[in-house]
Hints:
Immunoglobulin-like, Lipocalin, 2 domains, eight-stranded antiparallel sheet, six-stranded antiparallel sheet, 14% helix, globular
Amino acid sequence: xxxxxxxxxxxxxxxxxxxxxxxxxxxxxxxxxxxxxxxxxxxxxxxxxxxxxxxxxxxxxxxxxxxxxxxxxxxxxxxxxxxxxxxxxxxxxxxxxxxxxxxxxxxxxxxxxxxxxxxxxxxxxxxxxxxxxxxxxxxxxxxxxxxxxxxxxxxxxxxxxxxxxxxxxxxxxxxxxxxxxxxxxxxxxxxxxxxxxxxxxxxxxxxxxxxxxxxxxxxxxxxxxxxxxxxxxxxxxxxxxxxxxxxxxxxxxxxxxxxxxxxx
Length: 264
């Protein structure tokens, strides 16, 4: 038996068949408009030409969590073929992922065609997590000495190395705790004390080392980690001597003989 559709039903079906899904491009543009934008430039002071095929990597990471590795939030890789420094970069990040009470840093590095690290940042460039659009001061990179074949590796440098503490005055450290030091070439030091982040100044003359006043965040910590953090901060404020062994182990010593040990 043939069924005859009424005009109203036929019209409704025809209209339904003509409906199209929204274009993906419109959604992408809307999402892009909602992103926070971080712009800047990165380069180095030396007049050294870039090797063909070199690439620059610029990244934004959350460095505020003491109990976890830095989380990368945005990244841009730039082909440096036929280019010279400084190089402009733009990082786009979801503003919802940036919290006002957290710390976020931009770092940059240049690698050769074989992936070897040639230039890198040794200072922290923080961003304003509440700004939708911001332009950072120029980021300066420092040269990484090239390893020579058939030679012993160069001694680890105090400056520019991310030192991870593995012993505080002979008592070790808590499992999975993250206590670090990073000495910049600008006379500043920063890192994670265990639960909170810190920053300050240092003075180095041969093997004599001393720290200036430290600014420390004030997050609540679990008791065991808070106790370790207090011991770490008290010790480094009294440091008078630094030594780096051939094995790459860093030892800081106070005037009364207390020690702190860290590895790169």
